[in-house]
Specification:
This protein has 744 residues and is an alpha+beta fold. The chain is built from 23 helices and 29 strands. The strands form four sheets. The chain has a ten-stranded mixed beta sheet with strand order 20-18-17-8-7-6-5-2-1-29, covered by helices on one side.
Length: 744
């Protein structure tokens, strides 16, 4: 790093933090009005702020230290609000079912879906029944955010001017997409309006993550290793280090607005979550007597539960209006749509208190035994886990919330709700779930694929479990993970990082030879054979690896997209994965037509079909908006890796946008970390773009080049690690001059 770079990173953060310019712990004029509370509450916030220290390192990462866990949570939320308050607020507008108050009536159906399960009144009652320790954390959560708003009157929330301590129960696990999002909004709107609503399946970048755990006997230095590689929307989580005098000392990525580290590690244990393919949400077909509002269950008729839900939305002129719905539910769950004259009830986990407990408590676990004890709350429903600890234990686990069901029925499709035999019958015990604990092979992984290859030959056997334990199947990243994990006997942190960025594209290694074969079958005088001879030659000689300068990567991606789009619905109708459909059912004519389209599109947009991949695939961060606007005329940086849909472990979900020819990424690799659990923990990490959501901050985009290169930076986990890398140190509510690093 040059001296100039070091000085740039050590400037005081811009944005809301710098604008406040509060000289000492306290409140600016008008703060009491902004907080909406009396001076006794403000005094309480000030006392708690005095027990918290926030240290910003030279990448802007906040290291929060509190006297108690609650103090640490207070500081954690204050720091998150400093870095990106709009994302904190938006996540709670979504989780509370209040998004339409900011975005207008089009968000009504998303809000209604949320409110079918999570009602403020019920959450307030749940809060009152929470253990005292959890209520203290939730109160500190609210206080930290409210203190931020009180000390930053220039920040104007779109809706939430005050945070209440019960609100975290609406957002109790940090996954990119919770179970509720499996309910299709089109069907919900059609049912609750009586109108015909066209429903379409949106084609989007496959979401997911990679997690690798390596046992000591497979490492050079005899220390367990963990790869944390979530694939999310960019800027979806905040990188933080949170420590307290009550034993909390955790580092990693917290979803904006949550007071627990979702993907991360402490000095002795680490956990990585991957979106799971288990089937633990179900649809029940209800036979309904609409005149009497009842439904059949066995030989009986049961009364349908009704509830009135009133939603507020923003009008076009900036005002407010309301819509009220009468919603319906059976004992299986809320009614979310109708099909063939029957109502469909949706069953999912709705256990906000245990879920919040499990999410926080696992951050304080120090070994596998403690981690599993916390998992006994059985309130993780959507995520697999890769685990490693300093004693050398590693594990792959599926979600702990798994209902027991009658295996005679196919729960991957709606089942007959009038038949009592289809009901859930409690939960599977942890011991009965598919898992790989300390596998002899010495590694475990998941790429959002099935559990049956998680530890090579030591994986759980699909024949031992009901079909509902997997509906994901295999994906191209699965074989690639096995390939890189099998390639080395002794991993180091560096070679684990290299494995995570291995450029081999398994999907194209499978599909391109079929394309070459299809071309070879064309008659010698065929015009298409002549026209595609050079593109085919490029792909035939390609090693199926992405790279900045690879023209074959560009051609293959454009070809794959042209082949994928027209066949997606057919694959869904056939009930098989897209990759299998493309390999097994696409015709030679379809493969060749797609290559023609790819050549034409590249030529049209870039003047040639021989375009280096880095010229097309770009990272750009122009502003702090939640929905970004991209512009080919503005600066951007090349990214060598591709979408995970082609088998790239390092994922970059990019596409064209209105007015652009280049591809710009919005999802994929976000927070990435490699952790070594030795006598002294060592870790390296990278965050897409930078730690701050403020464009004027030096930490808005200071990690972008390292992100594209997979150049993870050292994590400053211990106080000694942090020495010489301190940008500034302060208490919530005050801003102090920057502290220069050593040698600057």
């Amino acid at each position: 790093m040059t001296d100039q770079e070091g000085l740039s990173r050590r400037r005081i953060l811009g944005g809301a933090v710098g604008a406040a310019a509060v000289a000492a712990v306290g409140l600016p004029p008008g703060a009491a009005t902004a907080a909406g509370k009396d001076t006794s509450e403000i005094a309480r916030w000030r006392r708690q702020a005095a027990r918290v220290t926030i240290t910003r390192d030279d990448w802007g990462i906040p290291h929060v230290v509190g006297r108690t866990d609650a103090d640490a949570v207070f500081g954690m939320m204050y720091a998150q609000a400093e870095d990106d308050f709009p994302r904190v607020e938006r996540n709670y507008l979504v989780s509370l079912g209040r998004l339409a108050e900011a975005e207008g009536e089009t968000a009504i159906w998303q809000d209604l879906r949320q409110r079918l399960w999570l009602e403020p009144g019920e959450l307030k009652r749940d809060y009152a029944r929470c253990p005292a320790w959890l209520r203290r954390l939730m109160q500190a959560w609210a206080d930290g955010l409210n203190f931020y708003l009180a000390t930053h009157p220039e920040v104007r929330p779109s809706v939430l001017t005050r945070f209440e301590p019960w609100m975290p129960l609406s957002f109790s696990e940090g996954s990119i997409g919770g179970d509720i999002e499996r309910v299709a909004l089109g069907g919900l709107e059609a049912f609750y309006t009586g109108r015909t609503v066209e429903t379409t399946v949106e084609e989007r970048e496959p979401t997911g993550s990679n997690g690798f755990a390596i046992a000591p006997h497979r490492t050079r230095d005899g220390h367990a290793l963990l790869l944390i590689n979530p694939h999310t929307s960019f800027f979806f989580r905040s990188e933080q280090h949170v420590t307290s005098g009550e034993g909390l000392d955790v580092y990693g990525a917290a979803t904006w607005g949550q007071f627990f580290i979702y993907q991360g590690f402490n000095a002795d244990a680490g956990w990585m979550h991957t979106s799971s393919g288990v089937d633990n949400v179900d649809e029940f077909v209800e036979t309904v007597d609409t005149a009497k509002l009842r439904y059949r269950y066995g030989n009986q008729w049961r009364r349908i539960t009704t509830k009135s839900v009133t939603l507020t939305y923003r009008t076009a002129d900036g005002g407010r209006a309301k819509r009220t719905f009468t919603t319906y539910a059976t004992h299986h769950g809320p009614i979310v749509r109708a099909a063939d004259g029957k109502w469909i009830a949706f069953a999912l986990m709705n256990r906000p208190v245990p879920a919040l407990q499990q999410s926080f408590l696992r951050t304080k676990t120090r070994n596998y035994r403690e981690f599993v004890r916390v998992a006994g709350l059985q309130a993780n429903s959507s995520n697999n886990t890769l685990f490693a600890d300093s004693s050398g234990e590693i594990a792959f686990l599926v979600p702990q919330f798994m209902p027991i069901r009658d295996d005679r029925f196919d729960y991957r499709r709606p089942v007959d709700g009038s038949d009592p035999a289809t009901d859930w019958r409690g939960l599977h015990s942890l011991a009965s779930l598919p898992q790989a604990v300390n596998p002899r092979i010495g590694w475990a992984f998941n790429t959002n694929n099935w559990p049956w290859t998680a530890a090579g030959p030591d994986s759980p056997d699909a024949e031992d479990y009901p079909p509902y334990f997997d509906q994901a199947g295999e994906n191209p990243r699965g074989p690639q993970a096995i390939r890189v994990l099998s390639a080395r006997r002794k991993f180091t942190p560096r070679t684990l990082r290299d494995a995570a960025f291995d450029p081999y594209l398994t999907a194209f290694a499978r599909l391109v030879p079929q394309l070459v074969s299809a071309w070879g079958k064309l008659p010698s005088g065929d015009a298409q054979r002549a026209r595609l001879a050079e593109p085919i030659d490029l792909l035939r000689r390609w090693d199926h690896r992405w790279g900045y300068q690879s023209t074959a990567t560009s051609l293959a991606v454009f070809w794959g997209e042209a082949l994928w789009a027209p066949l997606a619905q057919a694959a869904r109708d056939a009930g098989i994965s897209m990759w299998d459909y493309l390999a097994e059912r696409a015709t030679d004519a379809q493969r060749l037509t797609a290559l023609d389209e790819a050549v034409n599109r590249l030529t049209q947009d870039f003047g040639s079909w021989r375009v280096p991949w880095g010229e097309i695939n770009r990272f750009q961060r122009n502003d702090g908006a939640i929905t970004q606007t991209f512009d080919d005329r503005k600066p951007s940086i090349p990214v060598p890796f591709t979408s995970g849909q082609w088998g790239s472990l390092a994922s970059f979900g990019a596409r064209r946008y209105p007015g652009t020819k280049r591809y710009y990424g919005t999802s994929g690799n976000s927070f990435v970390a490699v952790v070594e659990f030795g006598p002294k923990l060592r870790a390296w990490a990278i965050t897409a773009g930078g730690a701050s959501g403020h464009p004027e901050s030096p930490h808005f985009n200071d990690q972008a080049v390292r992100y594209a290169n997979g150049d993870l930076r050292p994590v400053y986990f211990s106080p000694r690690d942090l020495e010489g890398h301190i940008e500034r140190r302060y208490r919530p509510g005050e801003v102090q001059p920057a502290v220069p690093a050593k040698g600057v």
